[in-house]
Structures are given as C-alpha cells and as structure tokens.
Amino acid sequence: MFQLIDGTGSDPIAESVVLVRDGRIETVGPQSSTPVPDGAEVIDATSQTIMPGLVDTHAHYHGDLDRVRRQFRKQLYFGVTTARSIGADPPDKVDLMLKAHTGQVTAPRMYTAGLGFSYPDGFPPGSPVNRPHTEDEAQEMVEALAEQGVHFVKMWVNRMPTPGMKITPEMRTTVVEQAMTHDLVPVAHIIEEGDLVQLMDLGVRDFLHTVEDADISPDLIERLRDTGTVFSPTLTNIHAGWFWIDHPELLDDPELRAAFEPEALARWSDPAHREEAAASPTLDARKARLAGSMAFVKILNDAGVGVAVGTDSGAGNGSWNVPQGWGTHHELELYVEAGLTPMQAIVAATQTGAALLARGEPEFGTIAPGKLADLIVLNRDPLADIANTRDIDRVMQGGTWLDRTTLMTMP
Q1: What is the CATH number of the domain that holds 325?
Q2: Closest Cα to residue 77, out of 341, 350, 275, 327?
Q3: I need a surface site. Which of 139, 158, 276, 380 has the fewest CB within 10 A?
Q4: Does residue 229 fall inside a structural domain?
Q5: Cβ distance 215 to 235 under 8 Å?
C-alpha cells in the first residue's frame, strides 16, 4: 500500500493510481476503480508516498552559466521541479532562466526577476543590481526588464547600517507602477511593517522574508489574509549562519556534500571557521531573529495568510550557506518547528508556491488531472516526520523520470 499526498492539504489517499500521459497527469483515483492501460509502464510504489514536486519561490544563482546549470541539477536531485530566481540575473542569466522555463535546459521550471532594484548605496552591498538615481531611470530599467521577458520585478526595501538609506517610497511607487504597466508582478524584500503597508497600498502581494517589528497589528494580519498576500519567509537562510556549528556531523553526509558549493563546504568543514562563527558577537541577535521570524510564520499560518517555501539559497555574495535543493527540505523542517503541521508545510512547498509563481491557474504544484506530472516518490512518510521528504526514491518532471544518479555528477 502507498499513499498519495496531492498538495492541496486534503487527506492522503491510500492505494491510488496516478496515470501519466504525454507529460501530464491523466487520471488520479483509487486502485480498485482506476484501470491501468495495457502496455503502460507501471511503477510499484508499495509502502511509499507520492507527492508533488517542490516549488522554491526564492533562490539565487551565482557564478558562470555552467555553474548555474550545476546548481539547477542539484535542485532537481532533491525534487525541486520549479523555482524562482529573484533579483540577481543579468541578461545572459535571464536567457538561461527562460530556456529553463520552457524545458530547454535540465533545470527546475524557472521563473526570473532579472536584476532587482535598490538604493544606489543600498542592500545588497556590492551586487550589480538596478540602482536608479531618478524615477526616469527606474522606468527605463523596468522597460529593459520587460523587453528581456522576465516574470517579476524585485525591490530590496531594507536599509544598510551605513549610510542608512533604502529605496525611497517615491521610487518604489515608480517601480511598482511601471512593472504593472508591463504586466510584470512586483515583489518586495521587506522587514518593516511601515514598508509592508506602503507596498500593499500600491498593490504588492508578494513579499520575501518576514516583518521583524516587535508586534504586528492584528488588523494588518487580517488585511494580509483578505488580500491574498503571500510571504516567502526564508528561515533556512537565517539558520544556515550557524546550523553547521551545531551539526558538523552532517558535513560528512554524501548528499549534503554534493549539494554544497565547494567554497562553503570547505569553509564550514574547517573547525577554526566554526569556532570563529560560534564566537561571533552577532550570533545571539541572529538566533533571536530566527525565533521572531518563526513566530511570524506561525501567526501568518494560523490566520490563513499564505506562506510559500523560499530558501534564499545562493544569497550572500558567494557565501553559499544554503545548499541548493537540500535547503528546500530544511525550510520545511523549520516550518514544522515553527508550529505548522507536516501537511501544511508540504502545501507551502507545492500548491501555495505554484499559485504564487503562475499567472492564472497553475499547471503544477498539485497532483490532479490535467496538471504537469511533477512527482516525487518518497521511501518514508513525510506526515510522520517532515524530514522524510529528503528520503527520495524517484523524481519526475513533466512526465519524465530524472536520472538522479547523474544529476550531481554531470559536468
């Protein structure tokens, strides 16, 4: 007997059949009443769990294009069949992302925001993103993104300690309005309630990270729910700053070692670096930030506000603290630790993420007739322990079983 988790939050279905034809799910039903066509390839998933492919709504890809392709394959290995690259893609990477979006590259089904927007001396430091000085410049930059064919327009709306500035409300208005003029979806990296409210007033409904103010108004939480606003909290990116100090034994795990970028693996494998990180004067503040962000995620979920899985993997100008693919599963674990049920965490990584990325009715993210056949076959039950999402037997993307034995080793 196996169980089917369809990604909608409905109860799992035992002893089911999933029939795939021409890349899409044709039929889902009980084994007793769903005939299997003669000549069909049959995969016996007895004692296993089938669930939708994972969706990571917040990722970054650094390095040359060959390195980016390797990062794509790492995500596929871990069952991430759709992802969004959010704000760090110059035109050559946009072109690669668009090819991945249409299946021309071995990669998750990619969405991209091209290069995001920030203050001229603002966050993220040193990154070659769009930093307009005037509203006319901002309009031209959004127009250039539209011509490239991106799907989203991102803004970083948080300040650097020095000089303490962030993208102005007037500039945000220009970027959002221009994005909407070109039928592009605006997305904002925020941490303060006032910025959240101003951007919501402009029509933004897609937010990255969490509000870090001490308290958030219950009226605002209600507004978030009623407007269909969704957050991608990226808890794993916060946790990765010290997680490897607490769990150095994981650095010997072959799958994790393969998922890590070599620089990060070497850094965190060095006991001296771990000791230095453990002695950091900012460590307690970062732990408090994670605790606050986890509490915020619980508040959102309890109120019915959308939470989508996003890892911020690849962020940090080459710090690579969050391994591609592996980190998506860690994000699920942190949601459960924050108080979500395993089923709620799975929905965040499938249906909610798909609805956030797709325009109109998503073609992926759930297991239902007509949907693209993105499937993961697990050896153990993720509802019993969310960490079991890592115990993957097979991954299907668009109706094709992926060769996981070569995804991590291809040059």
Answers
A1: 3.20.20
A2: 327
A3: 276
A4: yes
A5: no
